[in-house]
């Protein structure tokens, strides 16, 4: 018998989960997250999917937009603040497929995107996750 999920969490629910994930990031890292904007979109657009080297919008659950801390300088003034976008539909699909709680899934994606804020590549983050697990 299949699992019933009820009504899918909306944008406001995702924002609450994302901000809760930010609150769980420990010092000294948390001190460098001020000003990061979180946005929730249903899907990444085609241009975004192609820009990150994917073929399918369902594969992209989150994205960091902005200069990483290691690339910031006083000459960067006037740029938009860093932003993490969470893609609601791909996250909902992964939630249903994996059985991981939505809070854990959103936290994982937020932490991954925060890693990009600190200048870590996907390969470096996967290596850290492998060592931690």
Topology overview:
Blueprint: H1 11-23, E1 37-41, H2 46-51, E2 62-65, E3 83-87, H3 88-98, H4 102-117, H5 122-132
Parallel strand pairs: 1-3
Antiparallel strand pairs: 2-3
Q: Which structural class best describes the helix and strand composition?
A: mainly alpha
CATH hierarchy, class: Alpha Beta
Mean pLDDT, rounded to whole units? Answer: 84
Spatial strand sequence of the major β-sheet: 1-3-2
The rounded distance between the terminal residues' Cα atoms is 31 Å
- Overall outline: globular
Question: Which residues sit in consecutive blocks of at least 5 with pLDDT less than 50?
Answer: none
What CATH architecture label applies?
A: 2-Layer Sandwich
CATH topology descriptor: Zincin-like
For the largest beta-sheet, the strand count, sense and barrel status come to: 3 strands, mixed
User: Measured on Cα atoms, how large is the radius of gyration?
Assistant: 15 Å
Beta-strand percent range: 5-15%
Number of helices: 5
Oligomer: single chain
Helix content: 40-55%
Give a structural overview.
This is Neutral zinc metallopeptidase. This protein is mainly α. The protein has a single domain (11-132), classed as Zincin-like. It is 43% helix and 11% strand. The chain is built from five helices and three strands. The chain has helices at 11-23, 46-51, 88-98, 102-117, 122-132; strands at 37-41, 62-65, 83-87. A three-stranded mixed β-sheet has the order 1-3-2. It is globular and about 40 Å long.
